[in-house]
Amino acid sequence: MTSVPCRILHELPGRLRLRVPALASAGVGEPLRYWLESLDGVLDVRLNRAARSLAIDFDPRLLPRERLLARLADFKPGEPPETHREPADEPSVTPLVRNVLTLLLLPLLPRPAQHVATYLNIGTKLVKGADTLIHEGVKVEVLDALAVGLSASRGKLYTANITDLLLTLGEYLEERTQRQSDRLLRRLLRPAPTLAWVERDGQLVQIPGDQVQAGETLVVGVGETIPVDGYVVEGAALVNQAAVTGEDVPVAREAPKRVVAGSVLVEGRLRIRATRVGEDTTTARVARFIQESLDKSSETQRLADELADQRVYLTLGSAAAVYALTRDLTRVQSVFLVDYSCALKLGTPVAFKSGLYEAANHGVLIKGGEAMERLAEIDTLVFDKTGTLTHSELEVTDVVVLDPRCGESEEALLAMVASVEEHATHPLSQAVVEAARERDLQHISHGEVDYMVAHGLNAQLDCCRIIVGSRHYLEEHEGIRFDAHEAQVKRLLDEGKTLLYVASEHGPMGLIALRDTLRADAEATLERLRALGIERLVMISGDRQEKAEALGRTLRLDQVHGEVRPEEKAALITALQREGRKVGFVGDGINDGPALVAADVGIAMSRGADLARASADIVLTDDRLLAVADAREIAFGTMRIIRTNFNATVGINTAIMAGALMGRLSPVASALLHNGTTLGVLVNALRGARLTESGSVIREAESSHPV
Question: Which of 6, 129, 420, 637 has the most CB atoms around it within 10 Å of its CB?
């Protein structure tokens, strides 16, 4: 498959305009745009399929011109991926040019020719209004056609053409603004994978990234994009994951760490075993996620659409009343040009899309405006403990020697236990082995390990037979009692720790206490969520109630539920909802799926099971709990923008309507003020919600619906 030929038409520092004949073909434009926008330093890409031209704005300090042209030369057109759907062309400037030329020609034409030129110019508007009336009923297009048509029929040709120019300019800018909001989100959809070096039959072979098979081993060097999800099997490198997680700081990756498609190697070299390829990669799933979010409407958006349609009838009724009372067609034209619907219908989805984009840049994928709206409304947040408030990995916190006969120090006891536990795969065992490795303790030789599933294990050492496991195992199966050490046991359990009991045939030897690793950002996240209006913070856990409560006290939670079975999680969510609360749930496991669905808004952690991520309304792509607070703040900010835009639209357009009703505004002035209001609303919506530097905002007191 050959690359795309092109020719430079015009060039300025930081800007190129090229002729690309292939743009005339379907399925080339948007993939080419994504291909270029994925390159660091590209600021904007605009294409015109009709003219077969491509304009690229770039930062020469980050991206040399030669590298940009080389990137363009490497593009090979093909079938567009599902997530790269080709939208309609960019809004055309032809109607605007036609309007301007008509106004310039009018003074030079005789009166009959002026009428012909005017009707040719406004004909598109009249036909569009008639078509809308026939197929959709009374919409804003009908009002625009009536206003322009009335001016032309009364011989006010300049008024008709100027009004048409203002309306067309408004439509053009509105469409450009809306496309910009879509493009903000679509910039997160990375292009199809580039070439990849794969080990086959003992040799490195370069193939298209989407042809890599699961289980194959790839070699990725500096500057190359990782085309698959997988695990590092050899090497060490710094990897920039900004394309996927929004995190700009490169992260270290070495065996057996996980890497995700779309990441770029900054330094080093890696051999990677592919686990997910093609449409199953993180990048492809994120792309589908974002694409789906573009098409989802929220309750706020649906209400805005309904109110906008109602106000079209208000405008039509007001115009009829004015004509009945004054018989003044100029006033009628002015009233027709007062349109609430554009700003109401366009401002809300643009604000949501801007919020979705901002959230995605902070490692949060939100499934559409409705999920964002619900996130802004919740007053209770429930956390599953493991994998959310804590990391899944355990860590050793205490090594307590009870009998020094087989070891007089904590290090000796830990070394003995780790030497035996390294033969087991249980998370407790792995945590003990890791603790010994961190302390650089020597392995102690022992005999064959006898393992009893779900209870413990034992092995013969030079000094004694060591037995490690649960208290139940040691007391009920081995007959070794720990009653004499009850105070120490109780102290550690009250601190929320899990205990491994160690003994020999002579009696108790020691205790090893372990605890989930509390996320470093857990306390800051919960504090920030309270500042963002979350009234109740709840934790549910499968741990003993005492252990769960110990963590609850550390985090100052309002409610803690321990010993909760997986099937009971959804019931707890439902019970809170029956109390009148709007509940969000944060989880990551396969058994969290029902709770994520039952909650008003479900949030899945980045390392969560696929089922949890599929069930959730919101998915974190960055493994940090603070992203939950980021999402809440962005949701709040977005709803605040929507409220502001709604109030401004209604207030300003009502004032314009009053001026038109009283005859204080001409049709041209009415059109100018209305379009100015609409564009102001769209610019404010496109600006979108932004996180504050402190990462917090104070919740507004109002509890009414935003619209």
Answer: 420
